[in-house]
Structure formats: structure tokens, C-alpha cells
Write a structure and sequence with these properties.
The chain is mostly helical. The protein contains two helices and two strands. The chain has a domain of 31 residues. It has a two-stranded antiparallel ribbon. The structure holds zinc ion. Zinc ion (ZN) binds next to loops.
Length: 120
């Protein structure tokens, strides 16, 4: 059964030969499986590193998205505060105006709230 024999492909000339041979019978290049494994290991390491970078990128993207969301929420909060503050302010002004109207009415009636206050 010749098929069970492990065949290797020469990295230099792409010739196929038995793994038991130390050198390629076609071009004489030494078969170095350890070197190949090391190379493959390096490639695997590079691949893993690249994948790690990709994951880091996704993570930082999520973090960036979170920061954007926080800024948006902060802006919404500020806008709400401004709107509520404006409503409160205008409400306050409205009350002051009605107080003044009441004062004017009382003055017209001959009753001064200031006189009452100074009398105390
Ligand atoms: Zn060869």
C-alpha cells in the first residue's frame, strides 16, 4: 500500500516525495518539518493576534458607542433641565405678575399690602 506512505510537497519545486526522504529528490532541498511547524506556528500566532486586534476593535467600538450614548443622554438631561428651568422661570414670572396685579388691585381698593407690612 504505497498510498499510506506520508508524502510531502517540496516547498521549493513543489515536487511530491516521501516524508522518509531527508532531501527532495528533485531539487535537493532539505525537508525540515520542524521549521515548517515553527513557521505555521508563527502564522497561527499572527492570525490569533489579528483576531485579538479585531476583537479589541469591536470592544473599543462598543465603548465608543457607549460614550456617544452617554453624551446623548447627558445632552437630553441638560435640555430637559433647561426646559424645566425655563418653565419654572416663566411660571415664576407669571406668579410675580399676578402678585403685582393683586397688589395693584388692593392698592386701587385703598388697601396697601406695604402699609400692612410696615405696621407690623
Ligand atoms: Zn524540490
Amino acid at each position: 500500500m504505497e498510498n499510506t506512505k506520508k508524502m510531502i510537497v517540496c516547498a521549493t519545486c513543489a515536487g511530491e516525495y516521501e516524508a522518509s526522504l531527508v532531501r527532495c529528490p528533485f531539487c535537493g532541498t532539505a525537508y525540515a518539518p520542524a521549521e515548517e511547524e515553527e513557521y505555521m506556528g508563527q502564522m497561527d500566532g499572527i492570525r490569533k493576534e489579528l483576531e485579538g486586534h479585531k476583537q479589541d476593535g469591536n470592544k473599543s467600538l462598543k465603548k465608543g458607542l457607549g460614550t456617544t450614548m452617554r453624551i446623548v443622554l447627558l445632552l437630553i438631561a441638560v435640555i430637559l433641565l433647561l426646559v424645566l428651568g425655563g418653565l419654572w422661570f416663566s411660571g415664576n414670572r407669571e406668579r410675580n405678575r399676578s402678585d403685582r396685579r393683586k397688589e395693584e388691585f388692593l392698592l386701587n381698593q385703598g388697601i396697601s399690602t406695604q402699609q400692612e407690612e410696615s405696621a407690623q
